[in-house]
Amino acid sequence: MHFFKEPVKVYGIPSATVQTLAKEQWKQIKDLDKKTIFWLCDQLFKSDYCEESFIASNWTYQLKKQFTPEDFIIFTGRIEKYINNRAKCDTFCNHTVGEFIEQYPNIIVQLKQRTKSSNRRVKRAAAVSLIIPAKKGKFLADIFQIADSLLIDEDDIVQKGYGRLLKVTSQAHPQEVFAYVMKHKAIMPRTALRYSIEKMPKNLKVQAMKKDI
After folding, report:
1. pTM beyond cutoff 0.90
2. What is 15-209's CATH number?
3. What is the DSSP secondary structure assignment for residue 96, as one 8-state letter?
4. Buried-most residue among 3, 17, 151, 209 (CB within 10 A)?
5. CA gap 168, 128 in Å, rounded
6. Cross-strand partners of 9
């Protein structure tokens, strides 16, 4: 699959079919206790197949009303052990971890600490976990702090992650994100810069991409 730079395990099942399977099977397990469902999700993640990780992410999100602060350790453990490509990372983090952070915003301190990890997926996760909250205009200061921590990271997976976060944030806070980009564009990798300004008006894109003399 040309989308990925790393080897991936897939069955080749269309995403719509995977979503349907997740919903159908959820009906069979939804009355099980949370601990058992989490265990089932871990078994799916362990298989290393993308489609099974997507189902596990869906099932975990279905338990959002039962989230507790202690679940953050479980979620970060999954990211460190089982997340090994962009699709797995974003599918799990965008909704599940994003929902968790909205419920327990004080945990965002620990999320920001993950930007210092040596694991590229953990660093990307720190950024993309705030994408859904960012669409709602939340956590602006925290988003900029995460971007600061990842600003000059050399890994393009990380650059695209925080660039995507800034892009989404710009829809709710266009002027603030534009000001941030202009302040840092001299050192911001071009990959992150392009992602960040993707949704901006053309005239702002031109200013952001123009190299200072």
Report:
1. yes
2. 1.25.10.90
3. I
4. 151
5. 10
6. 49
